[in-house]
Amino acid sequence: MDSDYGVPRELSDLQKTRALYRPELPPCLQGTTVRVEFGDATTAADPAGAHVISQAFPHTYGQPLAHFLRATTKVPDAQIITEHPAIRVGVVFCGRQSPGGHNVIWGLYEAIKLHNPDSKLFGFVGGTEGLFAQKSLEITDDILSTYKNQGGYDLLGRTADQIRTTEQVNAAMASCQALKLDGLVIIGGVTSNTDAAQLAETFAESKCSTKVVGVPVTLNGDLKNQFVETNVGFDTICKVNSQLISNVCTDALSAEKYYYFIRLMGRKASHVALECALQSHPNMVILGEEVAASKLTIFDLTKQICDAVQARAGNDKYHGVILIPEGLVESIPELYALLQEIHGLHVKGVSVENISAQLSPWASALFEFLPPFIRKQLLLHPESDNSAQLSQIETEKLLAQLVETEINKRLPYLQKEGTYKGKKFNAICHFFGYQARGSLPSKFDCDYAYVLGHVCYHILVAGLNGYMATITNLRSPVNKWRCGAAPITAMMTVKRWSRGPASSQIGKPAVHPATVDLKGKAYELLRQSASSFLMDDIYRNPGPLQFEGPGGDAKSISLSVEDQDYMGRIKLLQEYLDKVKGIVKPGCSQDVLKAALSAMASVTDLLTIMSSPSFGGRAPI
Amino acid sequence: MDSDYGVPRELSDLQKTRALYRPELPPCLQGTTVRVEFGDATTAADPAGAHVISQAFPHTYGQPLAHFLRATTKVPDAQIITEHPAIRVGVVFCGRQSPGGHNVIWGLYEAIKLHNPDSKLFGFVGGTEGLFAQKSLEITDDILSTYKNQGGYDLLGRTADQIRTTEQVNAAMASCQALKLDGLVIIGGVTSNTDAAQLAETFAESKCSTKVVGVPVTLNGDLKNQFVETNVGFDTICKVNSQLISNVCTDALSAEKYYYFIRLMGRKASHVALECALQSHPNMVILGEEVAASKLTIFDLTKQICDAVQARAGNDKYHGVILIPEGLVESIPELYALLQEIHGLHVKGVSVENISAQLSPWASALFEFLPPFIRKQLLLHPESDNSAQLSQIETEKLLAQLVETEINKRLPYLQKEGTYKGKKFNAICHFFGYQARGSLPSKFDCDYAYVLGHVCYHILVAGLNGYMATITNLRSPVNKWRCGAAPITAMMTVKRWSRGPASSQIGKPAVHPATVDLKGKAYELLRQSASSFLMDDIYRNPGPLQFEGPGGDAKSISLSVEDQDYMGRIKLLQEYLDKVKGIVKPGCSQDVLKAALSAMASVTDLLTIMSSPSFGGRAPI
Fold first, then answer.
1. CB-based contact (8 Å) between A544 and chain B?
2. Closest-approach residue (CA) in chain A for B161
3. The complex's ipTM?
4. Cβ-Cβ contacts under 8 Å, B550 against chain A
5. Longest dimension (CA), chain B
6. Entry's NCBIfam families (chains A, B) (predicted)?
7. CATH number of A235-436+516-561: 3.90.230.10, 2.60.40.420, 3.40.50.460, 3.60.21.10?
8. What stretches of A511-589 show up as alpha helix (H) in DSSP?
């Protein structure tokens, strides 16, 4: 099985040209000196969970942020590393494949070799299974040559995205020790990075000298927080899907007789659906977050879509395009409850054939109402992260069927009060999943992944453990990007839920998928245009992913409109505090000191109130 | 409904750049003089059907080929047209939407206006329904501006691809007369062009002065014969689909745990599947033509795929990609027979619910064996051309299910003689249909369609009726393209089949879809690599459709390898004959004359034998 990994392969003309593309490095990573400045100790984004997290991660919680600086920056307390003894690093594809993953390896390899040609990079083959089984190959120029700027994870392969059980963690540690690794880089999404943090903690506790670093690579775009603006792969996936959605919109408009229901990948969160909607302007997009916030039932949703179809029929329009995120099924309250019951029965060991008989009367009634194909899909075993097998549940077909039934009920010739007057409703369903995931990565994803690879090296030579490589200010050109690292524990939250009477449970600390921010600018942009999208068919076709000319350098719309740069602001705050210190030195006038005290007292009061749990608690993301 | 047609719309950056692209014209169409040379009278490709066709088309059968020449060519008997009175032309999207259709209109418009600014072009809105209802709009620069080099048919829209019943033909004629049209250009595939020929014949018979011209625009690539090398849209569709197939191949190779079954559009013929296989090198492609030629049953096919899966498992490979043309279901003998029975019951007016009860015992047994989802799909009403609703029949799911069942039977722990030793078989199914059809057209399709539009004008000013616009030598650069026109009747064949004992029926003459030539070079290329594709995973990723840089000017592989240029050879033969005439003039020596007679006698004998029905009959395509 492993024999094919790392084998150079034949490339098409376009792939060859892409293989020659060389991403730029931001100024802070250029040269052979690593300069790192540490910020304040971090806390958790959710203050209420801080205690739980700190207990679970005694060795790795509360570490400071790290900023990597240009060689020429004059920062007095920056740590300057000019000696680079040879190091040994391992890298593993842990999460699901996402375009750009290969470039993390390339960037890491280049940084390692640039600082000391005797350093070595080992890739674990076959993903986590290779890590556990100590199967690796040394990365070389030759091996990388046909994988630079290319899609997929086929250089090393992947298996499950889990390093969690004691056996798995011990096997990973044994593997790192056998290869005498100074560092282990884990490429993946929320699950893999949670596991990376746990691995770092266990390694630290066991005095294993391997440092663990995580890299945010997931097409879902849901590893998003104050430190992480977007993920490697998201840009490409949204561009490839938007092209296809736009093609379908053009098709709908040409024949004017079909409603297309398109389900998109993205797991629980609807980031992909939101971005694709902003790029291609379909008639409707149903975000899981909206549905969850409004507690819409499947019947409410059906009615909403039917009302839209009816309104369009009123304008003599019998076509349309509706986007549905694959996570929608878990956002619809009663379907989620049903899935939870099914999941509970799975855990109890009830066989698939017997599950339906053991459902509660309420869940059973819903289950029996659903069409057979969807029943079968709901009964599938859950994924490794306990969520339903979202890619296998054809929510788009369920909605299309329900809408068709409801529209037919509204036809005047079937009942007198018929409100839908017009042509027959025709639905065509699509799932845009695996056909985008293996795409050649966009220029942005190539750049982002390559630079993140470099950042991983800087983290390792700074001796940091349990950190994630971060780049902020991503919407600016590469030469304005800020590179740093944040402890993964600072991105964790703790889930609380009550199950049964008078018992309350708290979950394990984890990096949880970030949902679409319904107060964010990207969502606001969508809402502003929603009625025009619905009625006016202002479809937009960004076209196929380009590497030259217009669109080649485009970034995702949600990244461009959202005002992020948290790391930049953290640095700016530090500068203000330093300035105050600089002005109010011993020897300054009493008046200046009094003014400073008074001003700082009110600032402190204000921030204390804003940060109290009763004010909302959670730090804004 | 019509209010949206022809409305300028907002374009993305890439669309704007594409809208500025200007295809080149071959030398023969440059300038304002039209020079046309007529070849010999045409016959039908199928000599056996010639009589039937000539009887059905008394006014339009047997017309000569037409070649359009450069203004500077010295051909004594070429007709030279320098006067260009204002003309009025109508154009209608008739077939299914295919990328590049808008450029036919653009090219036609430019040619019309170049030769006389007072000439007018009218587009029928809403496709054939607009033609019947006399709904049209005048094409202007302004209307065209945002549709140049853009996908879809949304400038004018389309409805059904049929102009066939007496009412429809009469309505079309009334429409042409009401608008005082000198010409009507019909954009479509095999069905639409057959209808165009019929319309031309009826118009000629009724002394309606409108000339009818067909243009070969169909993504299926099945309007292929000695005059037509490829169709507008085929190149784009194959490129978009090949990108997606390649992405899936990369994905398969990254995780090594799924078999992907991908169904491709293309109707009855497998041209799209063949071309995509040549571009992306999936593990298997099942061509309908192979299946039909070998009379493989669905069980044979299942076994073939299972054997392949088993052979790969022997090499520790548990992933793969299998392409399936949508027309496959009609190529499998027993499924075709079942579909024919169902179709017969539809025609008899049997309702869908009662069909299964009225099937013959044999067909009923097969029907009951099939999974419920496919039964439902087989019962759908047939399309306007009497074929099954291929886009709705999920053959890929049927095969995946049958393969899974069979592989499970081969597992050793279920039966002692288990031959499949390895991991679980997992299938994921995809249908790549509507998401490619609305794509921005490739450069080739933009050029081809635009030049065809110009050719239509030349056909009309030459006064030709019932012709199709043709361009040959397409694999060479545009400046080597040969432009001409061939009577549509010369592309027709007559189908014969026996139904029931001692009765034989012949069908109506029609342009029939050309199937993949199993003796052709493209197919040979596939067969040469088939075992390597199957076992070695030599996937190739042509990448997303590019408009600049590598791949931007690529043409389809089947076009590039096939040795066509029939029209060029017809011209070359004429030159040889003229040369013989030139050498053997009255006054030449007796010896020369004797040699010429002897040589020509043997040539004539040879050709007579080769063209006799007993020798194979059909002209090679």
1. yes
2. A255
3. 0.85
4. 13-14, 16-17
5. 91
6. PFKA_PPi, PRK07085.1
7. 3.40.50.460
8. 521-536, 557-561, 566-583
